[in-house]
TrEMBL record:
Organism annotation: Oceanisphaera marina
Keyword DNA repair part of the UniProt annotation: no
Classification via InterPro entries: Na/Glc_symporter_sf, Na/pantothenate_symporter, Na/solute_symporter, Na/solute_symporter_CS, Sodium:Solute_Symporter
Tree of life domain: Bacteria
UniProt cross-references to PROSITE patterns, sorted A to Z: NA_SOLUT_SYMP_1 (PS00456), NA_SOLUT_SYMP_2 (PS00457), NA_SOLUT_SYMP_3 (PS50283)
Membrane association type: Multi-pass membrane protein
Pfam families on file: SSF
Principal cellular location given in the protein's record: membrane
Record's keyword terms, sorted: Cell membrane, Ion transport, Membrane, Sodium, Sodium transport, Symport, Transmembrane, Transmembrane helix, Transport
UniProt similarity note: Belongs to the sodium:solute symporter (SSF) (TC 2.A.21) family.
Statement: the UniProt record of this protein carries the keyword Transmembrane helix: yes
NCBIfam families reported for this sequence: panF, sss
Protein name, entry field: Sodium/panthothenate symporter
Length: 500
């Protein structure tokens, strides 16, 4: 074990814990539920940008994506750049309307927004279970990525690295809640950006420049320097599917959409779009380009997911490598903590407080102390379940992550987007869309069916969108209150009244 590598990582983990503890000691500005799950809607533009980027740039982006680029070459780098507009799309499509309506109905979670729109407990319950199942799968990916990183750097067994990583993330999320999540995301986003730039410069220097490394890649396999990749794996249909899965469809990811409920004002949103898009572009290019070029410097890797930490150990001095290995660690931690908070909010706020506690008439409402303990207890239990599931990892985590991404999009995309922009959408349409999307995606992925060679997400979104429209048109129109809140005319007027 190289102590020069371990010390910076340990210091980073301790810093995150200390930051979570410090933020937990700050005076609470509202109810525990609003503070713990949404940070009292106080995010400025820079923090919004960094938490959006950090939440999206996960283990798949920092570990799995470069691993895929290592295997498939420069074509995967080009493909990865499809993800650049994700912050702009999410905030541009959902941001202003979500924030305006959320403040009017006091929505703290995505399921609060769904209930305000559809007035159906069944929609909320179905969404809650779909969200929990997909979040557990994506959090397993993040835990695996963190453990792989510690395994590569420290020489610890995989299980030992997994326990250390999981303990750190669980502790600072339990202590600080949403506020700790977004502030640590801002710190982690800066580390991710610096680490990516330093690594890419080191890789290019060690390989003698981009031109020499391109020639070396072509000597290994000519497919590594073509847009289609080895054996023409990156076909046109695959690229189209990938664009839908990791760019357009990201609008439907609940853990990104919830950020649209928590920023301070319109100025913060506009600043967040600009900063987030620029930082995201640098991260996506730097991470994947370094992964592709890494095939020249470390051609013997049997587990592609280890390419990023291995490259840092190869091209950087130990103390520098240890410092900037916090970059991929930050990417992984920032996604897990967001999803842990969302999973806890789903169980405690959306299911227990909204339904189960109200179903026992005559009993007093749960006390704030009970809610606080329940929220943290649920966060801990979900984290332990994910830890158990991560004990037996696959060789490449990107496919598991994309599978979970697709499931979330198939369930949430149309109820969120059409529910916001089409006043005629109804609960029946939302239910039809969610069930159709989940079943279609599940069947196509389980049996490996590729309609027209497309990834399962493309037909799933097409069929679920059609189900939303048909189900809505065949059911009674929303009530006057919903039309006034979500109608086109009201949203047009709201832009000038958005909180400032």
């Amino acid at each position: 074990m190289n102590i020069e590598l371990v010390i910076p990582l340990v210091c980073y983990l301790v810093l995150m814990l200390a930051l979570g503890f410090y933020l937990s000691r700050r005076p609470q500005q509202g109810s525990f539920v609003q503070d713990y799950f949404l940070g009292n809607r106080s995010m400025g533009g820079f923090v919004l940008a960094m938490t959006m980027v950090a939440t999206y740039a996960s283990a798949s982006s920092f570990i799995g994506g470069p691993g895929a680029a290592y295997s498939m070459g420069l074509g995967w780098v080009l493909l990865a750049m499809i993800q650049v507009p994700t912050v702009w799309l999410t905030l541009g499509v959902l941001g202003k309307q979500f924030a305006h309506i959320a403040r009017r109905v006091n929505a703290l979670t995505i399921n609060d927004m769904l209930y305000a729109r559809y007035r159906s407990p069944l929609v909320v319950i179905l969404a809650a279970f779909g969200l929990l199942a997909a979040f557990i799968a994506t959090m397993v990916v993040q835990f695996i990525g963190g453990a792989r990183l510690l395994e590569t750097v420290t020489g610890l067994p995989y299980q030992g690295g997994l326990i250390i990583f999981a303990t750190t993330v669980l502790l600072y999320t339990l202590i600080g809640g949403f506020r700790a999540v977004v502030i640590t995301d801002a710190v982690q986003g800066i580390l991710m950006l610096i680490g990516t730039i330093v690594l890419l410069v080191g890789v290019l220097h060690a390989g003698g420049g981009a031109s020499a490394m391109f020639s070396a890649l072509a000597d290994i396999d000519p497919g590594l320097v073509t847009p289609q990749g080895p054996d023409d794996f990156l076909s046109t249909s695959f690229m189209l599917s990938f664009w839908v899965l990791v760019c357009f469809g990201v609008i439907g990811l609940p853990h990104s959409a919830v950020r649209c409920l928590a920023y301070k004002d319109s100025g913060a949103m506009h600043k967040g779009i600009i900063i987030g898009t620029l930082v995201g572009a640098l991260l996506m290019f730097g991470m994947h380009f370094a992964g592709a070029l890494g095939r020249v410097l470390v051609p013997e890797l049997t587990v592609p997911d280890k390419v990023m930490p291995t490259l840092m150990l190869t091209v950087l001095p130990p103390i520098v490598a240890g410092l900037f290995l916090a970059g991929p660690m930050a990417a992984i931690m920032s996604t897990i903590d967001s999803q842990l908070i969302q999973a806890s909010a789903t169980l405690v706020k959306d299911l227990y407080l909204n339904y189960l506690s109200r179903s026992h008439g005559g009993k007093p409402a749960p006390s704030p102390i009970f809610i606080k303990r329940a929220s943290r207890g649920v966060t801990l239990v979900v984290g332990l379940i994910v830890l158990w599931a991560a004990l037996s990892p696959p060789d490449m985590i990107i496919w598991l992550n994309l599978l979970a991404f697709g499931a979330l999009q198939a369930i949430f995309f149309w109820p969120l987007v059409l529910g916001l922009y089409w006043w005629r959408g109804t609960a029946a349409g939302a239910l039809a869309s969610m069930v159709t999307g989940a079943l279609c995606y599940g069947l196509l992925t389980t049996f490996g069916i590729k309609l027209l060679g497309l990834h399962a997400i493309v037909p799933s979104l097409a069929f679920s969108g059609l189900a939303y429209v048909i189900g809505s048109l065949l059911s009674p129109a929303p009530c006057a209150e919903v039309r006034a809140l979500f109608g086109k005319e009201e949203l047009g007027k709201s832009s000038s009244r958005h909180p400032a």
